[in-house]
Design brief:
Four copies of one chain form a homotetramer.
Chain A (H helix, E strand, L loop, with lengths): L1 E2 H4 L1 H11 L7 E8 L3 E8 L2 H7 L4 E7 L7 H19 L4 E6 L10 H7 L5 H6 L10 E5 L4 H4 L3 H12 L3 E10 L8 E5 L18 H4 L3 E11 H18 L4 H22 L6 E5 L2 H20 L5 H7 L2
Parallel strand pairs in A: 1-7, 5-6, 5-7, 7-9
Antiparallel strand pairs in A: 2-3, 3-4, 4-8, 8-9, 9-10
Chain lengths: ~325, ~325, ~325, ~325
Amino acid sequence: MRSAYSDLAMEAREAYLNEQPGAIPGVETQDWQADGGIHINAVKIINQEGVKALGKPIGTYVTLETRIIPPDIQQQKAASQALAAELIKLVGKVEKTLVVGLGNRYVTADALGPKTVENTLVTRHLLENLPGQVDKRVHSVCAVAPGVLGITGIETLEMVKGLVAHVKPDVVIAIDALASSSTNRLANTIKLTDTGISPGSGLGNMREGLNKETLGVPVIALGVPLVVYAQTISRDALNLLLKTLQDGKQNLDTKRLLAQMDTQADAMIDQVVTQSMGDLVVTPKEIDQVVKEVAYTVAMGINLSLHPEIQFDEMTTLID
Amino acid sequence: MRSAYSDLAMEAREAYLNEQPGAIPGVETQDWQADGGIHINAVKIINQEGVKALGKPIGTYVTLETRIIPPDIQQQKAASQALAAELIKLVGKVEKTLVVGLGNRYVTADALGPKTVENTLVTRHLLENLPGQVDKRVHSVCAVAPGVLGITGIETLEMVKGLVAHVKPDVVIAIDALASSSTNRLANTIKLTDTGISPGSGLGNMREGLNKETLGVPVIALGVPLVVYAQTISRDALNLLLKTLQDGKQNLDTKRLLAQMDTQADAMIDQVVTQSMGDLVVTPKEIDQVVKEVAYTVAMGINLSLHPEIQFDEMTTLID
Amino acid sequence: MRSAYSDLAMEAREAYLNEQPGAIPGVETQDWQADGGIHINAVKIINQEGVKALGKPIGTYVTLETRIIPPDIQQQKAASQALAAELIKLVGKVEKTLVVGLGNRYVTADALGPKTVENTLVTRHLLENLPGQVDKRVHSVCAVAPGVLGITGIETLEMVKGLVAHVKPDVVIAIDALASSSTNRLANTIKLTDTGISPGSGLGNMREGLNKETLGVPVIALGVPLVVYAQTISRDALNLLLKTLQDGKQNLDTKRLLAQMDTQADAMIDQVVTQSMGDLVVTPKEIDQVVKEVAYTVAMGINLSLHPEIQFDEMTTLID
Amino acid sequence: MRSAYSDLAMEAREAYLNEQPGAIPGVETQDWQADGGIHINAVKIINQEGVKALGKPIGTYVTLETRIIPPDIQQQKAASQALAAELIKLVGKVEKTLVVGLGNRYVTADALGPKTVENTLVTRHLLENLPGQVDKRVHSVCAVAPGVLGITGIETLEMVKGLVAHVKPDVVIAIDALASSSTNRLANTIKLTDTGISPGSGLGNMREGLNKETLGVPVIALGVPLVVYAQTISRDALNLLLKTLQDGKQNLDTKRLLAQMDTQADAMIDQVVTQSMGDLVVTPKEIDQVVKEVAYTVAMGINLSLHPEIQFDEMTTLID
């Protein structure tokens, strides 16, 4: 699981705008509504001014606010179709794609990538072996879930590099579960970027990133926040409390106290949380079902974007 | 999952002792160390004074602090053996036992009960059908995982009542995952009580409890805290912060402010947490593996207690 | 898994007709085609003559030949709808149903019953607790997967009896995987009967049957053949070979030899098969997926029959 | 799943010996007993005469007849230790190993490879990142389960080649489920060879083999027969029947008939078996548990062979 903190251009922009209201130089933003009431936000960082302002590489960052959960087939169909439309804009016209499902299939909350691969329509082997006999609307797609360092002993980048060298895809789409900075986006937000997965983001075992620099082909990163770290949720509660109190009229001593609390809060939270037996994560109680539904919806979006002449209903019959 | 708040006599005692240092009338407590460095605490509520002081029924409440996680076979063996010893004290000499695994097998963090049943040595059918041919050391055990109300449409109590009427066990052992009030006991604490599962404890779908009153036979409840509610963890962090500040020298205005914060804290936390998509729980990141290891350890403890002439190593070969 | 040999009235009829061409006294049969090219055969045994002729109790035996596998959403929808129509004829108008998923959820080929229960729309708890607030089209349904004797130590009949006494359903629908007598019907045949599950059918752990005599309410048995015993498939091959040879012109010695082979065949097959490590079954290679698809299709058929005012597409959104 | 027909030098030898009793030129064989009553047979093909006689490449073929199933911890320990001893002989002294788990993790009977990888002690990442801090007894091991062509769209050989080029192991150990030619060896036979996996063996999706020619490093293939094809089991029954009859005194006509049957048998069997919906396999009924037990036993054998200074009991605590 990667942290969504650094990935989330929209949040960076919001944080920036709190301090610098008005347009951000070097950054273009756009918001709109897709079918099914899906809100989409796109942030483009177009030059070094934008890079400096948002602390992220030049590129496009798209956030879709969908309603995959609770499960509703019509809402999920709308989410898949909106995702497909955004992927097509980011990916452009491609003939050959490698889909990479990151994460650990044996840890429910981290299994989004592998489970998305399970539902991806894979065609490369058919096109290579029976070129004349495959439906003309189908393009070449292959898909792997390389596993995590602790189980394989091999860095994800090492695995994917070898495959890219061999398969020579036009683009890589990498799917991962994210750790969110906020509970209200869990499972229903899809994040896309054409900058790949940055070095340094994530939990330490992806130290080099998956991106055009490391792989030599464009990398689209697709992430869905599925967990919140326990520290985050405590911090959110404290912040809200402090903010509410600071908004009231307070004398000087009180203001000083609140400032002091603000300073000490992180240490307190760490103390509470790290008494525990290890990494604690906050998840929806029904995480097993949530991951299954999100993986299916995301995979359908990918399938529709890579074989755009096949419609949703037909696609559902192809991926069983 | 039941809340451990109400189940946890030790915590009630600690809360009480903070306000009323010294012995609690009507309550006897004992602490000792078992093999493998396992700390055991037993609280006996012996009369109405004790009931009033701790807010729980007359009975025995045992807490084992074990090291099941991270996995270590020797530590798990010690935990199973210590659990067996405590169960034997609570259960006494019985010939026929019904083991009930509560919870939802399709929700990882709630699957402890069903997974414990999977590892329980079941013998009733052999003893009934081939009475002369079964190892003399084996006693009659049967086991069910009745499922949860949302999946079956039937209250757990209704299911278990029918079985008890038919099987006529000497005792029921009911296993359940607990929601803890503290992160530092997750997965490594085993709680036992001979008072069964009280009405009103839990998440609302066990409105009548499983106990001697409802089932007509003694009910031993065995619980292991596997999750913490997101509210709890935030509340803990806030409490620690407020306590630290209140301990310092503060003028009157500050004290008033802190008191005000204390009052508002719960509402703030609820606001933060319930912005989310539903019930959020805090779990160890590796919850899939944790549940598997705990279920095996608990089931072995139950097996050793119900067939006390069979040793650990032999028992491992019987339950595959 | 029950053997389909004894359950399969159609086969019994065919066997009979081979020797007694023409109508069978005491037996009515009907064949027709439902939407989606589904062939349906219904056999009614109406009196003791029919019982004697077919060796099965008085009642109705329906066989649907569907195309659930390979997976195709339209074919599965047609199968669910045809199944619902036949169930409605057999069950009649009922207000309260108990669905029982037989079999072992931990053995893939035997998990059809438990997996069907997972996809059953369960409503009894809502109707009992919030009677005014539930959609008027919904009837009372509850569902259990009681597990198998080797895991629970309790006979299935004992478990179901207790539930029936408590829930007081108008009808029980019992789902089970069958062992087929022929490979060409695997996974695509659905068998229904209003005679329940007979004593003596099956693998020995259902010695008393689930039927009106034992439960006091009508029992509809629904089975799908998912495995073939290894002996069966070998016997089929031998029979075909012997039949082909016997059809040819042969002298007396040869006929005698073939008769001798026929006599010895079963012993030979047993010798080959039982050299193995235990029960061997023949399954489709993709049995994991097959069971999942069949369980979903069967559950949808049950759901549509028990809440007949809800259409297929809406139903799919209710059972996630 | 690969067919064991071509892999099984011992069977080839037996077939050969039936026709050519006495020593086979170019072939050395040895049989002995290991602890725990495990029978081991080693066949060495040492020159082109042996290649011609047995139809297999020059190399060593080892078969261990173990008792992994039914599960017994002592028997499984003995099997792991005997397997480790044979692997050490075949592999020699190595510093760096790549373990490859072949097969489809979503098809129970084909999941042996992926499940073995799950239980493999993986250390390469630790040795590379924290070289001074790792237990001196540990050697470099990494492990992958590359998935099957139908799910990834990429040939297994393509995947493994890329990894070998990057990881530069001294040896590759490839694990796979086998389709056996006989039911009496299912799950309890372990086959090893230092010739890798030959081109043309298997079910068609491994058209180039995994061996020293294709990968550039020695490849040890480790296989366990877990299924029998339905055709095989029928053929076995017929053969036994024909053989029994042929052994008796028969006149000329009868002999002619039997010869005719022998000729027609394969076509008959295919006709019976392929009336079914697709590939049918014969498996033990409890295949889910069988695969789990065999994978653990095999992985322990591999672990003991690659870190030979660590004993069995300590190893069990390292792979959880």
